[in-house]
Structure prediction request, 312 residues.
Amino acid sequence: MAQNTAVKFGTNWVAQAEHGGFYQAAADGTYAACGLDVTIVPGGPQVNNRASLLAGQIEFSMGGSSLDAFMAVQEGVPVVAVSAIFQKDPQVIVTHPGKAETFADLVKLDKLLIGDAGVITFWAWMQKAYGFKPEQREVYTFSAAPLIANENWGMQGYLSSEPFFVEKETGWKPDVFLMADAGYTAYSTTIETMAPTIAEKPEVVKCFVDGSAKGWYNYLYGDNTAANALIKADNPEMSDEAIAYGVNAMKEYGIVDSGDTETMGIGAMTDEKMADFYAKMVEVGALPEGLDIKAGYTLQFVNQGVGLDLKP
Prediction:
């Protein structure tokens, strides 16, 4: 591979702490050390980086969850997940303090604010696994006002976003229940590329996957000042306080580094966990039976312990 091979990586939202490891690897020369000149292309409400990947405008994109890999197979699209940066999906239910002790207790709430996108996935899973009732759902319009006004309601959220803003707005610290810890076994923040890229440029994929893993170790456990400066340059609305909250939440809940990563390294994926989540999505009707899910991901570039030596 030629030095300074230029590649673009499209994220799935505006720059934030949840993208920190990628910015870290760009900022500290980790990608450059194995020959890549990486440009991070932030996502956002008007940006579809998955479409850019399919169009050949970028080489890598950030997938939302394992579900994206399965849906690519279903749609016959040659997009392949090559790494899973988040071992746990950061989807949470947020409540007023003291309303529930466990995830199972949430069934006692009067209403839960759930967005349309979650209805056929995690909300369907919650009903199947825990007995939530369809009539408990209220439509989530990405406003916390109904939760704040109703003490016996819950609200979906992203671990480092909604809990932070509810606390800022109200002064009280909400209780947070992570779906992943209750059995919602999706990977999240995957690295996706096109199947031909894997076949024709495996060294490029390896450099990006390995560099990202090292970047995440350094971002979580080292000096992340330069990465955070890049995040704020790409997203001037991002505050130091919000970034610090995000980093602490990822570490506290083991979003990036827990379970399989402790021996296999950040980015780990297993056939077993993929099959488990696929079975759950088939059970709730989100996906059909019989998909060749292994066409949607590869373990070729992960599970090799890359970056474990960087962890303190």
In short: Residues 202-221 form the longest helix (20 residues). The longest strand covers residues 79-86. The mean pLDDT is 97.
